[in-house]
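Person: Please comment on this record:
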Amino acid sequence: MFTLPRPGGFWLCALQRGARSAAALLWALGLCLAAVQPARAVLAPALANEPRHALVIGNAAYASAPLLNASNDARAVAKVLEKAGFKVELMVDASQPQMQKAVTRFGDRLKAGGAGLFYFAGHGVQIKGRNFMLPVGSDITREDEVPYKAVDVQQVLDKMDTAKNRINMVVLDACRDNPFAGMARSTRSTSAGLSPLDAPIGSLIAFATAPGSVASDGKNANGLYTQHLLANIERPGTPIEEVFKRVRLGVRLDSNGAQVPWESTSLEGDFYFFPPSPTAKTGPTTLATPPGVEQMARVERAYEQLRQGQLDDAERIFRALAGTSHAELAWMGREGLAEVLLARGDSAGALAAANDIIARAPTRSAAYLTRGRALAAQGDMAAGQAALQQAAGPQTAADFGWQKANALLAAGQVQRQQNPQQAVQSFQRAARENPLSVEALSNLAVALNESGQPLQARAMLERAQALDPSDAMTLALMRQMQEAIAENQDRARQQFIDESVKELAARFRNPPPRPAAAGAPDDWTSPALAISVLPFQDQTLPGSTGRVGLESVVQQELIRELQARGYTIVERRLLDKVLAEVKLGSSELADQDTQIKLGRLLAARLMISGTLNSQGQGVAASLRAIDTETTQLAMVKSERGAAGGFNPAALAASMAASVAQTVADKYPLKGRIVEVDGTQAIVNLGKKHGVKPGQQFNVLSRGEPIELNGRILGYRETRIAQVTVTEVQDLLSFGRVAEVKAPLEKNQRLIARKE
């Protein structure tokens, strides 16, 4: 919901803090004009061209405890980094002096700015909380010799700190089996693995396994960690944090949980090894694809099929995963099957499946998310919200960053109605968990604006649009922002609206008597038919769409579609301000009598309202229109959006077509001929009546009377000509006359032809 900017670029926030009324769900001053995620990201030109420097060291030829693949890993890493635009210095089997000089050169190169990456594969030890990389050729026999004959990792961090470049990464594949295990057993200060390090601001430190643990050197040409590292580095458009999250999951899968990589990060900027490219190969190109990467791809493919509504295909993959002997993959498969049940509408089955997973694996975030959504579907909102909070909380873990982000999106959707500031925090966390999430950024934009931070909201929308320029929801929100700015320039109109609101609010509270014959200029001509579109009610299940602000976006997209069809629509700015002034909440707006009262106040013949509900993997809209003159329902209609991503414009177009059909059937345009000149005619209907060029009218002549018992009940209408509209003004139209069967005269009646 975007608010108007003040002079100088600031946006006004007209939403009252704490007000849970319908006005609080609208864009301020009425400007709502109107999850597996593909790897889409955009590098700013400045970042894409920034310097990139890397120092890669692989030590394998140790006299004692030589390593099989450390040098191979270093060469493979150097090759991939060069492809990614790094200027790489590669050292294999380096001595201590060579390593120290290389670190110094690396630090000097980093002073040019940009990105720096240090990679070490080899033996490493921790002594008294300090981590040392062991060179080749050093004769270390005692613990106290290590600080003088090895290289301290802190030296690398110090060089990076001195350089003050934008972003740095340190990758230590040095947690291999300790070559000095005997020494470690004889001392207190030397222990297995490496010691944890706190990443300085703007940096990330990655370990091949958790602090205090060791990883096997492996029996193949390359180590397990490096295989997964390179496979994920080579995924175009993958943010740096996501690279290492995927590495951790892949290594965990392929080691059956024996090796779990670990990172410490204080990154503040974005970084991508390879920018997105529609022609780039998305899989590994340097090393063979590890089995864990293929399994991860299977899981994500099934979730994408689920999102697209291909439930049978998704179920087949999930069922195969659930039946595997690999414990981690089996949990993923069972979670997916629970999601399929929920998508099929079986909330009881989904809840039972989720509860069974939680009973056996109580820290799995995805199972709690399914539990929360299933409980909400059954109407148990309190228990559902509690489960969503567990899914989003730190006590549970997700296999993929996007799964945790989805849980945070669902929690934020609930919080938005109860505590908007908590919703902002949840959406911020979702964006950190999945930097490629357009949903997280657009939701954050909505929540920020509702919290009175419109400039930050605009920045989030711009980031979302950069990630996916075709995202329909983001496009709709961007239209609101742009039209808010444009409308703010119409100062005279704003002043008129402000002056009108208080009078309209007073008339709503104390309606004056209605005139006996209000509306039409005669007993035949149709009055201008105005339509008012009220805010929709969003009753979708938390997390089902991943988006917030649907109620406002759908409302305004429907307004845009109806305006494009030529209908007169009550101005949104006026409607919103009146709603805020008289404090009508969503429950009051759902009342038919209130809608009729409001419609008469705004001179609207039709009041359109609707509700959004979850339906499988899509969104269904229940639409109704009330005739404020007859007080009867003029239309009740259900529309369903397609699965695979919410598209408010497409849903609104379908709804507008239903409204147009209702208007054509129940309110056919009727008018009179004003003037006839040969084959040209002027009609007393114009834009305000909904007339469009190309529209056709039948000219009628009173025919024979219809009698009963000597009383004339009416006349048989005869078509004597056809008028095709060629030009339209506000209150009249010009047309071409054809198929003339009798002379045409002023004041003859005509009626729109049904298409």
